[in-house]
Specification:
three-stranded antiparallel β-sheet; two-stranded antiparallel sheet; 7 helices; mainly alpha; 2 domains
């Protein structure tokens, strides 16, 4: 009888261990799923700094909305987004995610702190108040607040960069080209390749 209870004790002890391991695995799988859904994983490294998937998907979704609107304006009939156009949008979105990091790194270095936050907020407000910007939104039919916020932020940061680098006798486009060329970029997402100063897309997929 004693051996029976000892055996049962060992059995339930092992069962508790497996239940604990199973629980840990389930939590880890749930966290991995959450990270995938939220885009909390790196798709590239720029000078060792991670570029998060969430940044790419935000740029892709806004770019997709823009291109869809442009195609509707150019054709009276519904025009599908072709695989070629999708690849173009993906490449531009990937480059925009990298540019965003390069721009903010430059602005934080040259301005930084509360002063930069104030300048960004002021530039965003100027963009929102810009009549041409509002007319373009209306013309394109872009009503998604997420896309509008994205475009406003990108325009504001780009304008700040342009004003900053003009003090160095250059322009934002030239500075970005130089920054891309000098950056050490490692692509982690399948289907994409860094081609020296831009993204090359081949058989890439976007799930969000």
């Amino acid at each position: 009888m004693k051996n029976f209870f000892n055996g049962m004790g060992r059995f339930f002890g092992r069962a508790r261990t497996w239940y604990w391991i199973g629980g840990v695995v389930a939590v880890l799988l749930a966290l991995c799923g959450l990270c995938a859904i939220m885009g909390w994983y790196p798709i590239a490294l720029v000078d060792g700094h991670p570029i998060w998937a969430s940044s790419f998907y935000e740029a892709y979704q806004s770019g997709y909305a823009y291109w869809s609107s442009m195609l509707r304006l150019q054709s009276p009939q519904d025009v599908a987004i072709t695989p070629g156009i999708q690849n173009t949008i993906r490449g531009l979105a990937f480059e925009a995610s990298i540019d965003d990091y390069l721009i903010m790194r430059k602005l934080e270095k040259d301005i930084g702190g509360a002063a930069l936050a104030d300048k960004i907020q002021s530039a965003e407000q100027q963009t929102l108040n810009d009549q041409t910007f509002q007319q373009n939104l209306s013309k394109l039919g872009i009503s998604s607040q997420a896309s509008i916020d994205y475009f406003v932020r990108q325009i504001a940061e780009y304008n700040l960069l342009d004003g900053d680098v003009r003090l160095e006798n250059t322009t934002a486009p030239q500075w970005l080209l130089n920054a891309r060329t000098q950056a050490r970029v490692i692509i982690l997402m399948p289907g994409y390749r860094w081609a020296g100063s831009g993204i090359s897309v081949a058989n890439a997929t976007t799930t969000q």
